[in-house]
Fold each of these.
Amino acid sequence: MIKKRMQDAMNDQIQHELGSAYLYLAMAADFHAKGLDGMAQWMEVQTQEETVHAMRFFRHVDERNGRVELKVLAAPQKEWASPLAAFEAAYEHEQFITARIDELVKVAREENDNAALMMLQWFVNEQIEEEANVTKVIDLLKLVGGTGQGLLMADRELGTRVFVPPPAGADAAGAPA
Ligand code: FEO
C-alpha cells in the first residue's frame, strides 16, 4: 500500500499534469483563433499526452490501494502575444514540471518507496523529451521569424504532429510507452 505522504504528492502531481493539459488546450484555442491550426494541432497532441501522464499517476495511486483525490484546476491564460511567447511559456512550464518530478523522486527516496521510484523513472526520461520537444519548436520559430511565409511554413510543419497512444500494457509501474 502506498504511504500517505507519497499518495498526497502524487495527487498533487495529477493536478499539475491536468493543469498542463488545460494550459496547452488554452494555447490550442488561442492558435485556432488566430488561424494557426498547425500549432493548435501540436498543442492538442500535447494536451492528450498530459492527460496520459495524469492517468499514469491516477493508476499508480489506485493500484497501490491509495485514494485518488482530484483538485481544482485554475483557469489558464487565454491569449499569448505571439507563437514564440506561447512556446516559451510552455518551456517554462515544462521546467516547472521537471522540478515537480524531481521532488517526487526525493519523496520516494525518503519514504523508501521502490515501486514509486521505478514508476517515476519513466517520468524522469519523459521530461528530458518534453523539454527538448518545446525547445525544438522555439528554435524553429526563431529561425523562420514571427511573420509571413516562415510562420506559415512552421505552422504546416507543427501540424504534422500526431498523438501516439501508449501501448496496451503500459502500466502504472511505468512500463515503457
Ligand atoms: Fe506531463 Fe509535459 O509534462
Note: The pocket of MU-OXO-diiron is lined by residues 17, 20, 50, 53, 94, 97, 130 (CB under 6 Å).
Amino acid sequence: MKNLIILGAQWGDEGKGKVVDLFSDKFDIVARYQGGHNAGHTVYIGERKFVLKLIPSGILRPGVRAVIGNGVVIDPGALIDEITMLEAAGIDVTRQLAISNRAQIIFPFHRMVEKVSEARKGRIAIGTTSRGIGPCYEDKIGRRGMRVADLLDATIFESIYPALAEDKTTLARAFEVHEEVDFARVREQYLVYAERIRPMVCDTASMLNRAIAGGQRVLFEGAQGTMLDIDHGTYPFVTSSSATAGGACTGTGVPPTKIQGVIGVSKAYITRVGGGPFPSEVFGEDGDRIRKAGNEFGSVTGRPRRCGWFDVPLLRYTSRINGFDSLIITKLDVLDGLPEIPVLTGYRVQGELTDDMPATVTGLEAIEPVYERLPGWTGNTRGLKDHALLPPQAKDYLAFLAERVGVEVGCISTGPERNETIVLPGSRLASLL
Ligand code: GDP
Ligand code: IMO
Ligand code: MG
C-alpha cells in the first residue's frame, strides 16, 4: 500500500489543494502535518468553492478521513469557523475529522506578539499572514506552549495559561504595543472551544500507524512550500514550520519507512507572497499580466502575489531536499498566448554558475539570473484533459522543465476544477497513485 506526500515545491500556493482533493479519493486518510490557518488551499467542485485553511482537503470526499497532525498549530476559533462552514455545506466533519492531542494551540496573544515582532524597529518585517503562527511555534520549541490535550484538561490548562498569558503582556508592554486582550475572557472562550472539539481529538499518530498496519492508504498534504521551510527556505523570510517531506514524519508520527513516495507541486511559473528574495521576479506590465491571468491574489490575506518565471535551479534544489518522485505542474493555462516564455535556467554568483542555493539573504539577492527563452503557444490549454491535445510548444515547454529539473512531470493541471487535469499514463506518479 503506497502512502504519499504531496507538497509545495516553490513558495506556496502552487495548487496543492486542488491536486490533493483530486487524488484523495484513492486514499483512506488525508493528513496535514505542519502550519496552521496561514495556509489557504482552494478547491473548486463545480460551482462550489472551498478555501481550506486547517482541515486537509480530503474532508471534501465522503468516506475519507481527515487528520490534523501533531505538527500543526491550531487556532481553535479558526478551526471551529472552518468546521461550521463545512457542516453548512453538508459535510459530516465530526465523523470524518481527527485532531491530534499533541498539536499546539494558538491564542489571540500570539497574534499580538507577532505584531510586536513585525513592527519592531531594526527587525526585518517578514510580511507574515498575522495569524500568530510564528509565536505559537516559538512557545512550542521553548517548551512552554499549550497542546490540545492540555486544553482539554481544565487542571493542566490552569497550570499553563497564567504564565503563558503574563509573558505576552510583559513583552507587549516592553515594546509599547498596547492592545486590549481580555485574558479572563480568552480563558473562558477557550474552555468552550475545548468542548466543541473534544469528540474529534485523539492520538492521531497511533490512529495513523494502526490504519497503515491494517492496509489503509494515507496521503500527507503539505502546507506552504519548500522555500518557506524553516530550515531549507529563504531564511528569515520563511514560515516557522517544516514544510518539506521530513516534516510529514515528525508532524504526524508516521515513520519514513512507511512512506513510499514524494510528489512536488509547482506552478508553470512561480509566485511568492510577503517579503524576501525572489531571483526570477517579474515587475511592471509582464508581472501584472501573469497576476491577472493567474488571478494571483492571496487566498488567506487577499494580498497581490509577486509573480515570476519558472526557476529551474530553485526546483532542482527543492527536488533534492524532498526527493521528488514526480512533479505536478499547475496553471499551465496561465501561460496561454505568450509569444515566448522566459525560464530561469542558471544562477550566476560572483561570475560563477552554481547549483547551490545561497544560505543568506544577501547571497540570494546577489544571484544574477540566467534566462533561456522558449517559444510560447497560440492555442488554448485551459481545461484540456488529454496530453495529445496540448499544443506542441506546450509539450516542449513541459519536457524542457522535466529535463532541466531532472524529475518527470507526471501530471499537468490546466484549470482550477478537479477534472481539468492530465495524469500521464506510464509516469511514476501514475504508478504511485
Ligand atoms: P495552494 O495553497 O497550494 O492550495 O494553492 P492556492 O489555492 O492558494 O492557490 C492556487 C490557485 O490557483 C487557486 O485559486 C486555485 O483554484 C487555482 N488553480 C489551481 N490549479 C490551477 C490551474 O491549473 N489553472 C488555473 N487557472 N488555476 C488553478
Ligand atoms: P499555502 O499552504 C504562500 C508566507 C507569508 C510570509 C511567510 C511567513 O496556501 O501555500 P507566516 O504567517 O506563516 O508566519 O508567514 O510565509 N506564507 C505563505 N505564502 N502560501 C502559504 O500557504 C503561506 N503561508 C505562509 O506570506 O511571507
Ligand atoms: Mg494557498
Note: The chain has a mean pLDDT of 95.
